Amino acid sequence: MVAGVFQSVWDLAEMALRSALHWRLLALKYTTTCRRKQRLQPQRGLHGNIIEALQATAGTENVSTTTAVREQHGKDESYHRCKPPDVVVWPQNVEQVSRMARICFENNIPIIPFGTSTGLEGGVLAMKGGVCFDLTKMDKVVELNTLDFDVTVEPGVTRKGLNEYLRGSGLWFPVDPGADASLCGMAATSASGTNAVRYGTMRENVINLEVVLADGRIMYTAGQKRRFRKTSAGYNLTNLFIGSEGTLGIITKTMLRLYGIPEAMVSAVCSFPTVQAAVDCTVQILQCGIPIARIEFLDDVMMDACNKYSKLSYTVASTLFLEFHGTEKGVEEQIQTTEEIAKANSGSEFAWAKDQETRNKLWQARHSAWYAARALHPGCEGYSTDVCVPISKLPEIIVATKEDLVRSNLTGPIVGHVGDGNFHCLMIMNTENEDEKGTVKEFTDRLARRALAMGGTCTGEHGIGLGKRHLLSEEIGAVGMQVMKEIKATLDPKSIMNPGKVV
To answer: Which residues in 109-121 are b (16+ Cβ under 10 Å) and which e?
Structure first.
């Protein structure tokens, strides 16, 4: 009797254990299934069929919805907070870009083109979610024509990567924004940089573009395989897409002008007692027609930051970084005339950088100015203003801006490509402090409107992105803005191309 009772209890216990194990296995299976689905489903809930269609096009390994990857693709070098896409894809060729764009178009899903994430205006932020097209795996130099001085590259090719590829050819690509940016991305933002005073911006150096439109169609802005030096055939579609910031299409190839490497390159540094003297010197050099390759202005605060960050020992004063390109004799003549102008404006003796290693160190310090400025206040974010004015207005606007910074009690080292009237205040701020953010915003708007009042622009090279749309409207005017919106509506009727930017 007792044995029977114990057996019954044992049986009940065994049944309970089996039941518990059964439900535990079901729960585990359910959890595993949910996690598997979670990996397929993006944060904002794009339908699984969309993800599967993208995977079928680019391969499962080239589609990701993980949080870390999405967040990595939801921010650039700007202070704007991260806005991650729903999914990131890595196409391998233009056909895949076209097919995936078509999928997005048919399902009204935003498209955000992505290169090296070096932008300063929030251009890669996914304001409405969607699909981020990371183009870095399309990294071929497609065609080099040394006799015609042109090259065609995919969007994964960067500025430094191209010049490394060209090593030994006697050619180079001179447009240099500082960052090792994607060349197609540079076209999308109409980038320029330190060499623009002599070689121009991306607008002057792009011959043709291959573009995937919002609906997946592939177009060539100057005609397929066309690589002429000039044309008057129809509308200038190439320049329509340069500076469009991914709002009209995805640039998948760009054909660029190349230049012969100069026989001689010499750099110099010269300091001045005042901002006015340095900028007056710049204007006079340009007015004398000296074909200077680079002429960069750094104020005393920026020079102090660069000395500390790049371990240099230049005078902490308003300073010009200069570079001369040409034949040995031509460079000597440029230097002689420039030295005379500098001395007439109370400039110091030139500190020379003639060998390549010393020149590289000098210009690397200039290119690191953004990080040097941020290092002045560790933990703070930076915002770079980007105005450009007629050369004759440079002294007035830079002096006025310096005075405004002092009155506003703001940290904003000034640095700029003053050879073409473009300069930046690298504003350092605590983005958690709303009062400070407001003060910086008021200052940057004043600066932009000061430039507009002088016949200038609110952005010389960084683009409009998220934060300057109101300034673009003031600059272009109501009719101009309406035409831009009509062009956008024609090429992107569902407004899926990088929504929330420019217009």
So the answer is: bbbbbbbbbbbbb
